Amino acid sequence: MNVTLSDAVDLGIRLFALFNVVALGAVSLVWLERRFLGRLQGRPGPNRVGPFGLLQPIADAIKLMSKEDVAPGSSQRLIFYAAPILVFVPAFVVWLTFPLARDLVVRNMEMGLFFFVAISTLSIVGLVLAGWSSNSKYAILGGFRAAAQLVSYEIPIITMILVVAMLSGSLDFVSVVDAQSRVPFILVVPLGLVIFLIAGLAEVGRTPFDIYFAESEVVGGPFVEYSGAHWAIFFLAEYVNTFVLGILGALLFLGGWRWPFGENLPQLASVALLMGKAYFIVLVIFWIRGTYPRMRIDQLMEVAWKWLIPLSFALFLVTAFQLKFEWPWWILTIMSLAILAVPVLVQSQKQRNPALALAARYAANAVVVEAKPRPSPAAAEDTPPATSETAEGTSA
Amino acid sequence: MSTGPQFDSVDMMLNMGPQHPATHGVFRMVLTVDGERVVDVTPHIGYLHRGTERLAEVESYGQVITLFDRVDYISNLNNELAFVRAGEKIMEVDAPERAQYIRVILAELNRVASHLLFIGTYAIDLGAMTPVMYCFRERERIENLFEHVTGARMMHNYMRIGGVKSDVPDDFVPWVHRLIGDVRKGVEETDKLLSTNEVFLGRTRGVGIIDGPMAVSCGLSGPSLRGSGIAYDVRKDDPYEIYPYLNYKVPVGENGDCWDRYYLRVLECYESLSMIEQCLNQLPDGPIMAAGRRIARPPAGEVFSHSENPRGDLGVYLISDGSDKPYRVKIRPPSFCNLIGLRPMTIGSYIADAVAILGSLDIVLGEVDR
Question: Any chain A CB within 8 A of the CB of B201?
């Protein structure tokens, strides 16, 4: 392949534009999350720096950049400083194949979905290396947790991507979106989006799966020893990944830029439509963060191996049958909802209902203490141990 | 679980605290962990030792009240009440009825404030960030009332041996009525959000189980003991002040796990609010200070009195040698005694459970170390 100068310049411009879009998107999420959580929690959120606190992320960035960059004396310097980059680069590189509108993409690949899966897995290496090279017990615990968590949740995510690929008959993002011009995949396989979101939360490490950097347990996990700019890169990567999750959900399940307006939208409007859907998913993620506590590592594994992976395989099989026998698409919807009902029912029987019963029982079975009749104010002077008038210290 | 004989694994020692976000101050526990499993836990205390008991020996009785404000700094008024009652017992004074009602109202409000703080921080320990905002909002309302009544948000120095410092402001009763409505709504809101949340249940049910006999032999008290099914409450079993004139319920758990300990505190919030309502309806007029001398100079002797704090059974053992300063003040702090249950509860659980268990005991380090 001959690479001419103009090709290289073209690619450079595209990459630069993309980098700015991604960075701006991630920074906007920082602001959005803080404001949105503030609203959920009955407080204003940042509102001092710029209008509506819009410049708060910039103030944060300046603060982080001006901090001293400390590395533990006993850390493996090279790996310690390389780890944030190893986490951030995959988060950025996956954007190469994401089309923001029909022709708005850095490199459209026929294997776009595969490329995403292959690249996004790499960030595990960075987290484990960060944990290991810090030479801190909390960091290494966090690194181990990250490895276990991310590897487990790759499987349901990949299976869901396969389901989408089967439905659309392509691994190309543009074709996937085109296949949803009439019916988005969220209506065809609602279970698919649910599994994708849950597994995605775990991949990104957001509540209730923020186990590997759990603040109250391992105090930041792999990031515990990082400060200043290096920590900021981890932080940025986390938000870029959240944004990836939003865009990916919009492309794979919500019909990207095509549904519900079809092909006629001008390019700017289709970008806005896609971004709107992505931000919607991101807001759902923030909402979950405002609602749920954190799971425990064994429960996390249980969710992956006992629920998500069997369910995603079941959905995979059902989709295969639907395609093989050419059933109408709504059959798949019904079956996917039926599969979804299984964990919901089992879980509520196992946990929520007994707890509600227990709560009602505790409130009802409390030991009742009856009030004694209060002596009338007149009688109160002499009935109970009322020696108050005579009471006094003895010796003077 | 253990890896089996084919691997030669070494347990890791994990030093949690004194600077750790989940140890509620400067508590330190040294965990021996096998992967994510806790094999052993050794608590280390004393980082917040301020010599309260020794200081009490060189301060006059009135000044000791300020020390008690600072023993358990989350439930200051309950602590003041505990010492003031010991002082009244040794001086054989009784506070006038109005003063007793005011004290009980404030103490129960402080219990609600303390439980709200527990609920919020417990949610933080488990990774939920919203309940703490709701809880602090409600707690702030209570603190505002305290400021209005006592002049301080936390270190009140309001109760006196034989009564209270000053009468409550004129708008006290309507204010508290309004406050109760607001706080009850806030507690309900948090209760709905957290108590039967799936993830929360998964993290707390069946975690840190301690059975009744074991809880008793560890010396647990308060909600931590009642969670194990022992219906012991000083207000009920050794009534003091005007508690006998109130209708209330003492919620008791069954399983002795973290969820029981948590949920009993939620229920106690509701109970305390209803107790305050009854107190407000019964609040009599009259003096707020027992007649008598201002300077306490009790006869030589010794007394023990205890009361139900938000965290449990707070005992004060007071020895007087006849001077105006106590000869000895021994505090039986519920936090410290509850902490003894930590080891049997934690061993065999996960690291994340250790945080949940420590949180469910609701210790205040100021009280543990004194």
Answer: yes
| A337: number of Cβ within 10 Å | 12
Q: Is B97 on the interface with A (CB under 8 A)?
A: yes
Residues from chain B contacting residue A370 (CB–CB below 8 Å) = 247
Burial class (CB in 10 A: 0-12, 13-18, 19+), A83: buried
B95 touches chain A (CB under 8 A): yes
How far is the C-alpha of A52 from the C-alpha of B362, rounded, in Å?
38
Residue that the structure tokens 């703080």 belong to: B117
Inter-chain touch A377–B251, beta carbons under 8 Å: no
Which chain A residue lies closest to B186 (C-alpha atoms)?
Answer: A42
What's the pLDDT at A71?
Answer: 83
Alpha-carbon gap: B87 to the closest alpha carbon of chain A (Å): 11
CB neighbourhood size of B77 (10 A): 28
Going through chain B in order, the beta strands assigned E by DSSP cover 12-16, 28-34, 37-44, 159-160, 163-164, 248-250, 301-309, 312-320, 326-332
Q: Which residues, 6 or more positions from A299, have their beta carbon under 8 angstroms from its beta carbon?
A: B202, B203
CB contact under 8 A, A298 and B350: yes
User: φ, ψ for residue B253 (rounded to 5)?
Assistant: -90, -175
A 269-308 near B (Cβ less than 8 A): 289-299
**Shortest Cα–Cα distance, B154 to chain A (Å):** 23
Residue range A165-208, pLDDT digits in tens: 998 888 888 888 888 888 888 888 888 899 999 999 998 888 88
Up-side HSE of residue A273: CA atoms within 13 Å toward CB?
22
Nearest C-alpha of chain A: how many angstroms from B47? 20
Measure in Å the smallest separation between the Cα of B223 and chain A Cα atoms. 13
Is residue A27 packed enough to be buried (19+ CB in 10 Å), middle (13-18) or exposed (0-12)? buried
Residues B115-167 pLDDT 10s: 999 999 999 889 888 899 999 999 999 999 999 999 888 888 898 888 888 88
Q: Taking CB atoms and an 8 Å limit, are B130 and A41 in contact across chains?
A: yes
CATH for the B52-333 domain, from 3.90.1150.10, 1.10.645.10, 2.60.40.420, 2.40.30.20? 1.10.645.10
Structure-block tokens of residue A131: 């944990």
- Tell me: pLDDT of B197 over 70: yes
Spacing of C-alpha A274 from chain mean position: 19
A141·B193 Cβ contact <8 A:
no
Q: Which residue has the tokens 């209570």?
A: B142
Q: Between B36, B196, B267, which is nearest A297 by CB?
A: B36
Judged by CB atoms closer than 8 Å, whether chains meet at A215 and B127 is answered as yes
Residue B354 sits at φ, ψ, to 5 deg, of -55, -40
What pLDDT, in 10s, does the model give residues B271-330?
999 999 998 988 888 888 887 766 778 888 899 999 999 998 999 999 998 888 899 999
Contact (CB<8Å) A216/B129 = no
Enumerate the domain spans of chain B: 52-333
- ipTM of the complex model: 0.85
Determine the pLDDT at residue B276.
92
Q: How far apart are CA A345 and CA A53, in angstroms?
A: 43
